[in-house]
Every structure is written in structure tokens, then in C-alpha cells.
Amino acid sequence: MKLPSREVLEKIYGESEKSAKRYESLAEHFKELYHSDEMEFFTAPGRTEIVGNHTDHNGGKILAASISMDTIGAAYPTGTDIITIVSEGYKGKVVIDLRELEKVPKNKGTLSLVAGMVTAAKKSGFKVEGFHAYVSTQVIAAAGVSSSASFEMLICSIINYFFNDQKMRCIDYARIGQFAENNYWDKASGLMDQMACAAGGTILLDFSKGDDELCQQVDFSFSQIGYDLVIVNTGKGHADLSEEYSSVPLEMKEAAAAMGASLLCQRDMDTLLETLPKIDNDRAVLRAMHFYEENKRVDKAYEATRTNDAQSLLQAISQSGRSSWEWLQNCYSIQNPKEQKITLTLALTQLFLEKSGRGVCRVHGGGFAGVIACVLPKDETEAYVDYIGKYVGKENVYPMNTRLFGAGHVAKEL
Q1: Residues 6+ away with beta carbon under 8 Å from 53
Q2: Any idea what the Cα angle at residue 174 is, between residues 48 and 248, rounded to 5°?
Q3: CB atoms closer than 10 angstroms to residue 12
Q4: Residue of 234, 19, 223, 229 lying closest to 143 (CA atoms)
Q5: CA 125-162-68 angle, 5° bins
Q6: Under a CB-based contact definition with an 8 Å cutoff, are residues 181 and 391 in contact?
Q7: Within its chain, how far is the Cα of 273 from the centroid?
Q8: For residue 68, which phi and psi values (nearest 5 degrees)?
Q9: Contact at 8 Å (CB) between 154 and 407?
Q10: Taking the CA of residue 360 as centre, how many other CA atoms within 13 Å lie in the half-sphere pointing to its CB?
Q11: Which stretches of the chain drop beneath a pLDDT of 50?
Q12: Closest by alpha carbon to 43, among 349, 414, 406, 293?
């Protein structure tokens, strides 16, 4: 066993002291748990959605990026048919016998998720054998920065490195994760979370295109325009809101079906407005309208990143946030309308931003609960962290960097 070099850690994280301690702890736990010092190391980041809220599942566009928070793992093949995974901070082990995959129950948390991933990998023609893994994560759970997708992409990295000679592509990772969520978690997710965690850096995604054209790398980070991205955990996760979350793609597809299509990308706003009298679900119409306008905002944001046009980018982000709040309606759950942590934190943030007249905020990720994103000048970041920390707890405020490296093996040399 050889830990990742300081040089490699600097390339991935921009520092090596804190990250080295994380990998040292990972190695110690793996050795203690599995009584072996043979191990390899893997990493998969969380993600931020810059513009493109809830568009992936209907063939839309998204500008997204990986973030500096990540999930890391130590793993090694066992030469058996048994997969054993222990995640730091979670009780018990995930143990799967590859010979009895069909016996693994669905909707039973991480156990079901891993079984779904293995099933998808095998169906896609990839090889899966037994391994031991110990996993640790910084990605906020159930809060909109894709802790589940980060974990999924980490497991795909392990399977790819040990058993498939690195032949699996990012899109393969993403479809494996999506299959597991759709079929073993009953979560109607798209591919954005997985793609952004797998690819690394900033990416433009167009889900109306085929796999080979779906993802385009973009040379951009908020630092390039003198801004920071700050993620704020509002204090309520969305782990118990799968029904609300799944209603968004389902209602968008309801509107598409009224237009004689399976996905909204197959029609346009004009057709939607012509079909409006035939659609009884007003919320489905509003969500479809959000979809079409959001795609335009992604195009605008992408052009802004190419020229480092900060004002145009911030305008697109702000407009996207307002549309998510008003048209998409994913800022709070109608199951409990008195609890509105997202909208309250957005309102508090807007009060702060109005004083300087610089920066924007928006709901982040799937919504209904979880986190918001604030993009503001670097010289305002510290003041904002102190300000919003008074309301949500400073430990729940996370200034972020864009991470260039996606999911993969932490090589000795990059």
C-alpha cells in the first residue's frame, strides 16, 4: 500500500495537508477492518448545477460543474463473489453476494443502490467481481449536491479500475447510477448528477443528443470572474421527499404526452401554448414552461462562460432561480408548507445581496429542501458566511471551488 503523493493531492484538491490526512485515515480504517494493507484509492466529487434546474430528465440542457467536496474510498479485489462496503458514519456493512443479486430487496437504502448498480453494469456487458471497500465522504447528504451520485460514481470507478481495464466511460458510469436510482430506489432521476460527478470540471450537457455528443467540457470556474460559489445547507434534507422530487419529471412528461411526445425536448414552447387547453394540470404546464425557458438560459450562460461575461452569467443564474421558485415550484414541499427553509434562506440572502448590489442566489439541486447556492464577489464571501451562518449555523456554509478531476482512481501520478 502506497498513499497518494503530495503532488497528486495538490493537483486534485489544490492542497495536500488536509487531504493527506483524509487518505491516511482511510487506509488505517481499511487495514483495521479487512486486515490487509493491499488497497487502492478512489475519489468522486459532488456537483453543482449552475443553470439548468430539472431539465435533464426531459432531454434538456444543463451547465454544471464538479465541486471540491468529494467521496473517497479505499478498495481491493477479494477474488470472491462477495462485495463488502463500509461507509464512515453509517451503521453496518453493505454485503452483496453476486450469485444472489436477484434476492436483494429494493428500496432498502445503500444495499439496494449497490445491487442496482451491479445489475446495470452486468447488463451493460461489464465485469463485476467481489471487493472490499471503505468509504468516507465530505459531500453533504440529502441536501442537493449529489451525495448519492458521488457515491455511485466512486463505486463505478472501483469496478472500472479493477475489473474492466478502465474501458468504462463517464456516460457508462452515469447510466449505471441512473438505472439503480430509477429501478432500485424508485427515484425518477435523470443523468445530470452522475455526469457532473463523473466528468469533472465545468461541463455543458445536452440530453437531447446521443451519448457521444451529450457532454462538452467548458473552460470555466467562478474564480475566473472573481466570484465564489457558496453552498448553504438550510437545515432540512430531502431524503424523505422522493414523491415530490419525482413529481417534477412525471408532470413534465405529462405535458409532453399531451403534445404527442414522450419528452419535452421533442416539442417547443409554441406547441405547449397551443396545447394548453387540453392539459388539466396547471402545475404541469408551468413546469413545462420552466423547461423551455431554462434551456434558453443555459445557452445564455454557456456563452457567458466563453467570454467571462460575469453579468450575463449572473443574470442567467438569477433568472433560473426565480423560475425554479415560481414556475417549477421546487423551493418547498406542499406536504408541509409551514416549513420553508429554502425560501427563508433565499430571502435572507437576498437581503444581504441587496446591500452591495452584487451577487445572486438560487435554489440548488432537486429542491424542496436542502441547499441554496449563492454566487458573490470574493471580497464579500467572508461577510456573507458570517451573516448567513447566524441563521443556519456557520458549519452549514460551504465556500466551494470547481474541481477539475472527476471520478476515478487516485493514481500515483496524474
Answers
A1: 290, 294, 320, 323, 324, 328, 330, 362, 363, 367
A2: 65
A3: 22
A4: 234
A5: 100
A6: no
A7: 32
A8: -70, -20
A9: yes
A10: 19
A11: none
A12: 406
Q: Which long-range contacts (CB under 8 A, 24 or more apart) does 268-271 make?
A: 268/292, 269/293
Segments in 93-187 forming alpha helices (H): 110-123, 147-163, 170-184
Cα–Cα–Cα angle for 383, 388, 392, rounded to 5 degrees:
150
Q: Which of 64, 112, 59, 105 is nearest to 85 (CA)?
A: 112
The pLDDT value recorded for residue 335 is 85
Taking the C-alpha atoms of residue 130 and residue 155, their distance in angstroms, rounded to an integer, is 12
CA–CA distance, 335 with 339 (Å, rounded to integer): 9
Question: Residue 146's pLDDT is what?
Answer: 66
- Residue 33: CB atoms within 10 A of its CB come to 15
Amino acid (one-letter) located at 345: T
Could you give the CA distance from residue 412 to residue 414 in angstroms, rounded to a whole number? 7
Which of these, 205, 201, 209, lies nearest to 191 by C-alpha position? Answer: 205
For the chain, the residue count is: 414
Backbone angles phi, psi at 293, to 5 degrees: -70, -30
Q: What is the maximum alpha-carbon separation in the chain?
A: 66
Q: How far apart are CA 344 and CA 349, in angstroms?
A: 9
Contact indicator for 248, 331 with CB cutoff of 8 Å:
no
Backbone dihedral region for residue 316 (phi beyond 0: left; psi -120 to 50: alpha; all else: beta): alpha
Q: Which distant-in-sequence residues (6+ apart) come within 8 Å of 195 by Cβ? A: 64, 170, 171, 174, 203, 205, 214, 215
